[in-house]
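Hello Y.,

Per our agreement to keep a running log of every chain we model this quarter, I'm adding this entry. I've kept the format consistent with earlier entries: sequence first, then predicted structure.
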Amino acid sequence: MSKRASSLTMAIALSLALASPTLAQAEITPVVEGGLDSPRGVAIGLDGTIYVAESGAGGEEVCLLHPELANEEPGICYGASGGISSIVDGTPTRVIDGLVSGITPTGEVLGASDVAVDEMGGLWFTVGLGAPDPVAFRESVGDLGSDMGFLFKADGEGGYAAVADFATFEAEDNPDAEQPGNEEPDSNPNGIALTADGAVVADAGGNTLVLADADGALSVVAVFPSGMAEAQLEPDTDPVPIPVDPVPTAVVVGPDGAYYAGMLTGFPFAPGTATVQRVVPGEAPTEYAAGFTNVIDIGFAPDDSLYVLEISHDGLLNADPEAGPPRGGLWKVPAGGGDAELITNELVMPGGLAVADDGTVYISTCAVCPGGGGIVSVAP
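Predicted structure for the entry above:
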């Protein structure tokens, strides 16, 4: 399995996996009930406003065949339906509109991935890509695709400016090229952590954390190593060992000043194998917490405990086509590490979380549902 395939799993594998719902262990309160276009990352503003990155609903302006879809017609179809929304009193309002959004034949969406708020109230956001030879693929989408693979900062008036180009950085440097299956570059920028040194971004395609400094210059903070797993690659054949990409989806700054990154963990998406890694610049990543499945986001609470969000609690390939949308889990790791507690496993295909100052966790749901996404809250 190449890193090209694993980097796109956040979009493609979602529709391949439909897990049976289970009983919730915590009270889940709707904040926005539907209407969001494939909501992903969530952030809390200085005044308590909720912000959410909407990957969009795709479009019909440009359709391209894609090797990770086995050239299935019509490939990925792009439009300008993505954006960033603010939510006040349960009402979403687009504050950034017209971002590129790509949708596959089975309804998975790629577009805006995460949003963050800086200490001055400024909005930052990433737009994903997820393709081999990322610069060439972006160019093939034309003017519509010019946002793909970038970190942006909003200007407060509905506009935005590019801060850093992760697709070009990956194409030129490919930091994990020596790992099995990762010889070709792939970039899919996702989670954002804002720091005094700049913005650190989790590149799910590149399997890296990359720092964008104040001038937009990029440098590698960490490269996450591949693992191994048994997978049946063809029907009626025996499982064989294959490299498994870590696929970092999220990054936050911990109470100790280190970076913490959540791993989706690529194909075959084995349940219980996803981790949270602790990263000190200049040192190899170390495991902070384990036992999760398909981690899509993480966030520290005011008491220094860590919330870990799974997009699929049972694993993206444990499919039951008749069961309905997959359910994700929310876990809580005690301050300083230790055994995680499952808070709920009744979140409908969640895409991101943010923890408020009072400890309330806000979570986007139905992350690949054009028009059907929402926001829920879970009390501490």
